[in-house]
User: Fold these one by one.
Assistant:
Number 1:
Amino acid sequence: MEKTDKLIVTPQDFKLPESLELDCGKKLDNVVLRYETIGKLNADRSNAILICHALSGDAHVAGFHSVDDKKPGWWDEFVGSKKPIDTDKYFVICSNVIGSCAGSTGPRSINEATGKMYNMDFPVITIRDMVRAQKYLIDELGIDKLLAVVGGSMGGMQAMEWAINYPDRLLSCLPIATTSQLSPQSIAFDWVGREAIKYDPNYNEGNYSSDLPPSNGLSTARMLAHITYLSDESMLKKFGRSLQEKDDYSFNFNRDFAVESYLEHQGQRFVERFDANSYCYITRAMDYFDLAARHGNDLTNAFEYCKNVKFLVVSFSSDWLFPTSQSIEITRALIKNEVEVSFCEIESSYGHDAFLLEIDALGEMVSSFLDNVMQKGEA
Amino acid sequence: MDNFNLNSRKDWTVISNIIENGSRVLDLGCGDGAFLRYMIETKFISALGFERDQKEVAKCIANGVPVIKSDLDRKLDFALDKSFDYVIVSRTLQELTEPEVMLKEVLRVGKKAIVSFINFGYYENRLQLLFRGRMPESKYIPHKWYNTPNIHLGTIDDFKILCNELDIKILQTIPIGKSWGLPAKLWQNMFAPTCVFVLG
């Protein structure tokens, strides 16, 4: 690729004009959102798409931060010029969620009231709180109506919160590989991950020093979670029982298998870019996510006001973290409200990660869906 | 949909004439959604399609037709009672594991059902079986006996008997014959290769 072809994006910061009211009842002051935009907002401001990222994502959805930058954004194959979310046509916005550690206000930010990091003084946030903060940004950008809110996994949860809380601010909603409520199994995985962090000797009740973070705990949490993003089939295909750089078992407990080495690598890479407290806060936000609970334990009621929002719900056949049955639940609730919805389960062996990997199958549906929403505009 | 030809299937013309403007329509086995798109554009219906093939589902989405990827052998438990004005079952009944269960479901969620039915009693089918001693193959039954998705073939008379047993009212019977206009009307079971039923 020619260097001149590189899409260069510049992260920006936006400070909320007022304190953010949270589901837990507290308020968060001086909230900053890190965000990136790609493409051009058209004259009537009708081509804006908000992309919501997953647990470990950030605002850097596509492109590069500089000409020399080697690592593209997390959905670079999906978002860009002539890609499924075509930035020649659309103005793409992606903001880092609050609670994160990639530019937006989170537990490792400085609490201006004390001059110290929040750490465990940071309030427990919810997915809806993340979306509330994003809405200030969309207001600031002068966009009355988003063409679409798109997100996979935790991003899909945010997309649904957008449709439920601000139904008149978006034309379409694309929840991908997601769920309307975290299952006990997922809550259990989150719990064990956080326990691993807590038991790290460096943890210090969350008040660890930046030079000595609880990396072993965070790495273990990531390894555990990473297994849930794959599938039995994809692991079998990718690793089999093959050994890593050796011909025979070592007859000790160091890593022998390729799959062990892979997880170790994933864990190590993760601690270089992610923060343990953020991991705890964001997984907790997901644990608390339950759209039905807020609406009399009936998911149908949750989407009561979404009649003018068009939905595309997508799941992947081998995703056992947020299986197809959970997307069908969402679809069913939407149909009961006579909301215009399409649902597709895409055949894939990649497990939950398929939403990042099945570019062709997912891309075809997403791009043609967006084309139709754009064409029809506001009904 | 530039190349959609309503006349490519005679039952489509019949069905689109039955459905009133602005109806809420569920089409079970909607294929690429071209027919639903035609009715969205000409009859302003609010449509929902069901399709089990991922490629066809993608085409529906490209056609701007709301679609659910689903195996029809699932119950229609996503829909409230009588929440659709019409449920179209277009040449799909014979492919279902339990067509009679589906028929009941269809009339639970739909105020009316439109069933487009392939008539196994059509005289050409009878002749093939009688004289060739082979399972019939035709435009409507294009498969071999061993690879056909049609696991529950029946005749128009069989279908009427089933409706009677299920207490389903047949509101309209519209036999569709090629050049056999009059005989198809008089002797449906013999001369109509397909038939559209409106059930209530």
Note: Residues 72-199 of chain B form a domain with the Rossmann fold fold (CATH 3.40.50.150).
Number 2:
Amino acid sequence: MKYVDEFRNPRLVRAIACRLENAALNPVAIMEVCGTHTMSIFRHGLRELIPRQISLVSGPGCPVCVTPAGLIDACAEIAAVPGVIIASFGDMIRVPGAGTSLENARAAGADVRMVLSAVSALDIARQNPDRQVVFISVGFETTTPGTAAAVMQAHAENISNFSIVPCNRTMPAPLRLLMEEPGSAIQGLLCPGHVSVITGSSAFEFLPSEYGIACAIAGFEPADIMQGILSIVEQVENGNPHVENCYGRAVNPGGNPRARALAEEVFRPCDAWWRGLGLIKESGLALRRRYRSFDALQRFGIEPAPGNEPPGCLCGKILRGAATPVECPLFEKKCVPSSPVGPCMVSAEGTCAAWYRYGIGHNRIHQTDD
Amino acid sequence: MCLAIPVKVIETRGGTDALLDPPVAIVDAEGIRQEVRLDLVDRMPEPGDWLIVHAGFAINCLDPEEARKNLELMNEMAGQVGKAADIS
């Protein structure tokens, strides 16, 4: 397939790996922020190709995983209101909150439907004018503009039976928090490719300038990821941290201003809770006054409680890159994809799900379905 | 929710009104036809163009010239200087 196969060419990937082997003279700790990167690294077996002195840790880049448990309980509470239809991205349905999940609500009779886009949720609202349709709006910079477009459309068409639970988060603030964590060993950051399509490379400039972190924006194919890692290692070795755009075919330096303008029209920054990271200033998004009537939490009068992590669950530390899944006492025992305890085991982009699926922890040979 | 592969435009429709008739593209995503919204891209793509899609919306048109440069740079980095893999 065009624009995919070329970047999966095994000869090219091996050649970059070889160059990486020569470049990596000292240990380097790199965080890959995006859940899609995490999955791609495992799926293509890149850990085998990466020299041992390079350690890769996963960051808080799965929007489903960072949604606080209390907010998930609030969504389940709305789902239980008679007549409500919940429209949600698939992963979000199975994520456990503190007390329940949307899946449990569905088992108890709630109408919970999976959608791939906010626009599909709006379609459901049009088709069911006598029902309240609530879209669970998770996502980072990449997802928010589309949700904003759907809200603007609902506003223009006066669709009064549509609302959203705003769980959207923005990316740079938690990265700052991670870099300021005492004892943080992270030297390089594989920046999220599709967040960067929207924000542009400038959103990450503070990392090299304020924290000396080497950054590379990378695509999702094996050659893209290997090139990004090579760039980071060379930056660290040369003592020249900066933001290198290795994904020029998709990422413009200035990002996508049109998408950002849509998001800004509908949402304003607000302080927000992150699972595993706590309260982060201006890292969430609330609906602006003009669109506030589309806030499902207000419409249904529900205040999310601060939810606690399930006992023993290490998702919080895993999301900070401070622990790996095998350090969690529940991993592969009580917590498996068919019956997950924490969010990182649920989402296809979750770190624990990736480790489980590809059997990294215990070197299991694991059949995959793709 | 993240579709990390680019999709090819077959045709475009709509766009007479930004909110009431938003522009859409019919795309081929690994053999499956899908409709994606074009609200977020800065130009109406042509049939045959490639899009990066996320949660039902195209977030950018893929730049073939940059893709060629990407690949050339990789080949160069990999020490395989010479003819870059054919991408055009």
Note: Chain B touches chain A through 40 residues (CB under 8 Å).
